[in-house]
Amino acid sequence: MDGTLIFQSLVLGVLLGGLYAILAAGLTLYFGVMRVVMIAHAAFVILAAYLAWWFHDKTGIDPLFSMVFTVPLFFGIGILIQRVLITRLRPATLTMMSVLLTFAIALLIEGLLGLFWSGTQRRVQLSYSGSNFEFFGARIAVVKLIAFGLAVVSLALLFLLLKKTRFGLALRATIQHREAAQLVGIRTDRVAGVGFGLGLATAAVGGTALSLDATIYPSLHWSWIGPLMAIIVVGGLGSIPGTAIAALVLGVGQSLLQVELGTTWAQTVFYVALFVTLMLRPQGFFGGRLAQRF
Amino acid sequence: MAKRRRRAVSWAAALSASVLLVTACSGDPRGGDEDVVLIGVSLPLTGDFSEPGKGVQRGYEAWVESVNRDGGLLGRRVELKILDDQSAADRVVQDYEALIALHEVDLVFGPFSTRLVIPSARVAEEYGMLFVEPAGAANEVFEQGFENLFYAAPAIANDHYDHLADHILSLPEDERPQTVAVASMDDPFAQSTAYGLRDRLREGGLEIVVDEEYPPNTTDFSSIAAKINASGADMVVGGTQYQDAVNIIVQLRQLDYQPKLAAFSTAPTNPEFSAAIGSRTEGIVSPTGYTPDAPYPSNVEFVELYREMFGTPPAEDEANAYTTGQVVAAAVEAVGCAEQGECQERLVDWLHENEVETIVGPLSWDGQGRPEGAHLIQQYVDGEIRIVLPGETGEAEFLYPKPEW
Amino acid sequence: MRNASDTEERVGGGVDAPRAGGGFTLPGWSRPAGLAVAVALVLLFPELVPNAYVLSAGVIVASYACTATAWSFMGGFTGYVSLGHAAFFGLGAYGTGILIRDLSLQPFLAWLLSGLIVLVITIPIGIAALRVRGASFVIVSISFVLILLLVFQAWEDFTGGANGLNVPRPFADLYRPDHHRIFFYLFVALLAVMLLTWWVVDRSRFGAGLKAIREDEDKAEALGVPTRDYKLAAYLISATFTAWAGGMYALWFGDLDPIFQFSILLGAYMVLMALLGGVRHLLGPLVGAVVVGTALEYFKLEYGDTQLHLVFTAVLLGVVVLFMPDGVIPAAGALLRRLGPQQSSIREITAEELLERNRAAAAVGGDADGRGGSGVDGSRDGEEDGR
């Protein structure tokens, strides 16, 4: 095993981990504010990637600019999903039924993608898709770096929003204790709606980042939702910093294991981590106190 | 007590209604239209194999057009009944079940992709139907003990690269590539092609430095590309279908890996290929069972008709489908029947004993339905697909080493 | 529109709503007669069909009915929604195939054994999944399918990988329609065993404990129900039956492919069928499977296998979850019941609402004692529905 290959894999792993982090952040946000496991999150990611591809295909403008439309659109859809659909469910069975409901949404998106754009695999054709530069002996592809940068910037923004603004305070209060937050005058249902919108907006950003260097097809979301769910459990349900750390660790782990075990076996690292976490520390390894109770 | 009774009755009603619904949705077996030969086929018009699936469909349509212009089969007009199996094995089985038992087709043609051929061939076998197919080239297909199956192309997948292997091994030691990296989709067809070449090269003394395998739905090839790059292999062999080849090439370019020879199955024969990888195709090699320039009389006719119908020259999938039609037609004309039942057995027997003239040359089969021929090797030369091997039929010089991509 | 049945209900259960509200009384022979007609129709089905295709569709629907009923042992009794039951289906199917291939076992012996192997494998999975409630259970159930999909694709030497696994026909050289006929009856027999098991569990202390978990797990635990063991036992029963359904499918279908055996969609179908029919009813999942399965086959035949059936499944699942989480039959019943007094199961009502309603009832002064018993009635309702 030579050092260059390991270093190259490490670099690829960090780049991949960044993408995982922004995608999983949304997922953990929904769970935090609503105790909802949003199965459709990855489907929305793929939808955003399709929109980016379509936008590029029709206009020839760089797919990154599709975010001008998709981010607000997804934010709105997120609020709608929370206010119109999720709140209709009975509180007693919310967790289970919301899974089924979001599962149905995921299927719906997959089906509609297939109807509109067929099951054919798609890929954005960029002039710079093969461009790369050297980085201490490893090669970094420009498209991968852009995706990583996008992920880091949006995660940082999300973090600042939660830590530094009044809204962030309200949102964190809602995550920590919904009833108490209501008592101090926070309109938790409105906060939860915006939280849902934010989560879906991260799906738009993540999907666009994904579209730069990935082949997409309608049923692709199933191979993303598994790793993402594993990440949020390992990181501790509801904790965004925990999610980011778990995403990086598992992304790098996957990338390094690929060298030894090949692509398929390496992907099992997520599920092994998930089972180990549930057996040893159901509340997650990096904070998050919610899993025990739900 | 009444509520229980009501419920039991409503269940019984629901059940019977559903049973009746199943019985009622039996469709419309065609009402004894004796002037038509109805041919059933299931194709992946959506899903993983939709691109080649549509190619096969165009090939079948061209064949139907050609037969009907010549007065049909046995004087009867030919019609196709095409169902979409979405590249899924459970669907392809139900499709052939429906074609044979429900639509009562007279003949069936094979679907696309080896993994779909085996399940559908079993349905045909168990209904006693002749099963000529355009796509199941991997060895597994012929090891299932099917008696009614014939592959309508010149060679099985393991032998596709034979001419390339011959050529490489004929080079002087110091000019040959020394190391080879292999990556193949876990798919019977893709693997057979790549591993056929890999094994020949290994026996010839070349070193296999990377041997990777990935499942069909893989989209992230960065680590496979990293390994190939790290090995610095002189030659890269891809056992690929379509999109995976595009992805591997893009990832290899991202790592600035420049092999002396790059061979990929299937994808480079697809018309979309050069657009998909940004025209960096120069020097890429692929096996093909077909070239539009082949001199066989029926091929000249086929290319002309195809151009007239679709405006482009036919590619390999189209040609294989057309060949399937030719093979079945030859048997039908010789035996003089086309319907379900004992006729099918006579068609099968005839094909086992005879040779058929097709657009890819004369075809004959062994007892398991393996064709006995070899594939050509194509290469992108000056942006055009040219047949480069074997040397005597080559349209251009074999380009080696490959220019940078 | 009050009638004799109302009085009967009142005497029997105190406050159970008049389900036959505005209805009529059926003669006493109608229940056995209705069931007899249904059973006869099912058994005669292979003789009634016009062609082998419809028969093969019937086999598929029967296999759906088996999986949906098996799913319901967990999802119905305990209320734990598993989206990953396709994992057990696939394990049962592959187990059967591999046992025949490697040990040359008699096909049906392999089938039986494969179910038992899945039972053993499920024990640690169940323990991990049931350590935490709700969300994590669902995550684990989905992850389990996804991980098995990967493993069965990657472990080529053992499972055949993406090339698939060919399961030899248990009855060699059979004309295809005869093959379908035999398997239709085999699936129906398996289903009958499951229904019988359900009927037995439903009447047992164990069944009552499971339903207590469904209604309120904390209270059940406080009352001394061994919730963890009960949940695990239900999970094991459910997994084993699903595996047997999968094994039977393998023997019938013959070609296994990881993508189709470990498919999330298959798990979703099970949930949809069970929920649609009503998970609390003995025959609910069966009815759901017949309705959804027939609709799916019909859809695919008429409109080709486009993505439309995915949209259809999604919309149907969404509608069921949002508007009739207890199933179509209870929902239809509820529509009829609108005329009568309102009442609901305990899980659908908060303490405040209950209090509010009791106050209102007291204010009206009429039916006070009846309404006050609403909570008790709720749990009774669950019991009754199982029958």
TrEMBL record, chain A:
Transmembrane segments: 6-29, 36-55, 67-86, 98-118, 138-162, 191-212, 224-250, 262-280
Annotated membrane topology: Multi-pass membrane protein
Localization: Cell membrane
Signal peptide: none
Keyword Thylakoid: no
Cross-referenced PANTHER family: AMINO ACID ABC TRANSPORTER PERMEASE PROTEIN, BRANCHED-CHAIN AMINO ACID TRANSPORT SYSTEM PERMEASE PROTEIN LIVH
GO cellular component, one term: plasma membrane
Family: Belongs to the binding-protein-dependent transport system permease family. LivHM subfamily.
Keyword Transmembrane helix: yes
Species this protein is from: Streptomyces sedi
Any one biological process term the GO annotation gives: amino acid transport
Any Pfam family matching the protein: BPD_transp_2
Single GO molecular function: transmembrane transporter activity
Protein's recorded name: Branched-chain amino acid ABC transporter permease
Keyword list, A-Z: Amino-acid transport, Cell membrane, Membrane, Transmembrane, Transmembrane helix, Transport
From TrEMBL, chain B:
One Pfam family this sequence matches: Peripla_BP_6
Signal peptide (residue range): 1-24
PROSITE patterns tied to this protein: PROKAR_LIPOPROTEIN (PS51257)
Coiled-coil residue windows: none
Origin superkingdom: Bacteria
Keywords for this protein: Amino-acid transport, Signal, Transport
BP-aspect Gene Ontology terms: amino acid transport
Gene3D superfamilies: 3.40.50.2300
Domain Leucine-binding protein: 39-373
Family membership noted in the UniProt record: Belongs to the leucine-binding protein family.
Name of the molecule in the record: Branched-chain amino acid ABC transporter substrate-binding protein
Phylogenetic lineage: Bacteria, Bacillati, Actinomycetota, Actinomycetes, Kitasatosporales
